[in-house]
């Protein structure tokens, strides 16, 4: 953890942008705690530890790289949050506090203290403690139902983004040496076979979180808060729902080697979501029929991570293949 003096440009930037009701002490000494992320993100804590914010940093400004442009986009998403109905109620997202590009700060939000979904997954996988996980999945399902029912123009879902993403994953995994030639041919065949099936189950676009990974949902004070809004967009709801399902499958596969252990939790999550909407029969059938395709995308996405062993990443690809083939048989 790094200490920044009160006359440092970063401390001065915080002094200028934090609202008057924010409980920051007068000294403006700041401690920086780096947080796990693909970009520079840090928790900025007051010298006495009484207040904290989270800052995301530009590598350079004006934004020129894809990551910096996405940070600009996330800031815009927070600005739009009120019009999207995400600031109502008990804090569905962190409070936006501003930004200071001159100090490298692309985004500053109020710090949310609380465990994430990954903690509950770890306890469920390693110790069999499912009760806490199920409670958090119910809250997460309710949160996503709120996202997905924001008033939007009734635009239909197109299957093309999902098919394009499968093609992108195939290229990336091939370049990483994770796919065999047989894998590539099988995935190409699955893409062709699923193209018509995706179109058979229509839906309208919803407001999707877009990066529904376990560490992006925190559970402070008995509620749930979604963080990291850089991929917030209008999309198929399954980009959120099946991402959660795929992450749960990975959690059991990686931590225990028993992929089937995730099935009760996945089922509980979907049941909770369908109750929270509530969903009609057509939407329920669509989610059931198309989840295997999107869930396979989530598993293949995880297989790109270099911190995982190549053997396990190959197992993820095999699991995705089983998911595609098994799901396709449901649509016959």
Write the layout of secondary structure elements.
Blueprint lengths: L1 E3 L4 H9 L12 E5 L6 E6 L5 E6 L8 H15 L15 E5 L4 E6 L6 H11 L2 H19 L11 H16 L5 H19 L6 E3 L8 E2 L6 E2 L6 E3 L2 H19 L6 H14 L4 H22 L7 H21 L2
Antiparallel strand pairs: 1-2, 2-3, 3-4, 4-6, 5-6, 7-10, 8-9
Overview of the molecule:
- This protein is an alpha+beta fold.
- The chain folds into 2 domains: 2-110, Phosphorylase Kinase, domain 1 (2-Layer Sandwich); 117-330, Aminoglycoside phosphotransferase (APH), C-terminal lobe (Aminoglycoside 3'-phosphotransferase, Chain: A, domain 2, Alpha-Beta Complex).
- Helix content is 50%, strand content 12%.
- It contains 10 helices and 10 strands.
- The protein has helices spanning 9-17, 66-80, 117-127, 130-148, 160-175, 181-199, 238-256, 263-276, 281-302, 310-330; strands spanning 2-4, 30-34, 41-46, 52-57, 96-100, 105-110, 206-208, 217-218, 225-226, 233-235.
- The strands form 3 sheets. It has a 6-stranded antiparallel beta sheet, sandwiched between helices. It has a two-stranded antiparallel sheet with strand order 7-10. A two-stranded antiparallel ribbon has the order 8-9.
- The chain starts with a strand and ends with a helix.
- The mean pLDDT is 93.
Summarize, please.
The chain is of the alpha+beta class.
Strand order of the largest sheet: 1-2-3-4-6-5
What percent of the residues sit in helical stretches (DSSP H or I)? 40-55%
What share of residues are in beta strands? 5-15%
Give the number of domains: 2
Instruction: Write down how many β-strands occur, each being a DSSP E stretch of 2 or more residues.
Output: 10
Q: What is the H level of CATH, i.e. the homologous superfamily of the largest domain?
A: Aminoglycoside phosphotransferase (APH), C-terminal lobe
In CATH, what is the class of the largest domain?
Alpha Beta
CATH architectural group of the largest domain: Alpha-Beta Complex
What is the oligomer described by this structure?
single chain
Helix tally equals: 10
Could you please say which CATH topology of the largest domain applies here? Aminoglycoside 3'-phosphotransferase, Chain: A, domain 2
Write the H/E string, N to C.
EHEEEHEEHHHHEEEEHHHH
Class inferred from helices and paired strands: alpha+beta
Flag low-confidence runs.
none
**End-to-end CA span:** 56 Å
Largest sheet: 6 strands, antiparallel
Tell me, what's the shape? Answer: globular
Rg, Cα atoms, Å: 21 Å
């Amino acid at each position: 953890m790094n200490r920044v003096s009160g006359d440092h440009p970063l401390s001065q930037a915080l002094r200028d942008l934090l609202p008057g009701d924010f409980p920051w002490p007068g000294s403006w000494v700041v401690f920086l705690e780096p947080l796990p992320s693909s970009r520079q993100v840090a928790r900025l804590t007051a010298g006495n530890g009484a207040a904290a914010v989270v800052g995301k940093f530009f590598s350079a400004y004006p934004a020129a790289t894809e990551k910096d442009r996405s940070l600009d986009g996330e800031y815009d998403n927070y600005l739009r949050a009120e019009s999207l109905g995400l600031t109502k109620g008990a804090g569905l997202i962190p409070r936006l506090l501003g930004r200071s590009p001159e100090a490298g700060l692309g985004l500053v939000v109020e710090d949310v203290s609380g465990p994430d979904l990954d903690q509950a997954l770890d306890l469920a996988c390693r110790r069999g403690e499912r009760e806490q996980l199920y409670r958090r999945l119910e809250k997460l399902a309710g949160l996503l139902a709120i996202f997905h029912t924001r008033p939007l123009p009734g635009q239909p879902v197109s299957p093309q983004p999902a098919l394009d993403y499968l093609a992108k994953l195939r290229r990336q995994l091939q370049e990483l040496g994770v796919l065999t030639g047989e894998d590539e041919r099988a995935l190409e065949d699955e893409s062709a076979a699923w193209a018509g099936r995706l179109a058979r189950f229509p839906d309208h676009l919803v407001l999707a979180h877009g990066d529904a990974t376990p560490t992006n949902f925190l559970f402070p004070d008995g509620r749930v808060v979604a963080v990291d809004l850089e991929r917030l967009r209008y999309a198929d709801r399954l980009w959120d729902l099946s991402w959660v399902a795929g992450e749960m499958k990975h959690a059991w596969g990686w931590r225990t080697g028993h992929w089937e252990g995730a099935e009760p939790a996945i089922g509980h999550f979907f049941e909770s979501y369908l109750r929270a909407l509530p969903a009609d029969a057509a939407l329920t059938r669509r989610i059931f029929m198309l989840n295997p395709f999107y869930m396979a995308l989530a598993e293949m996405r995880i297989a790109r991570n270099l911190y995982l062993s190549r053997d396990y990443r190959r197992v993820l690809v095999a699991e995705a293949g089983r998911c595609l083939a098994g799901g396709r048989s449901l649509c016959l």
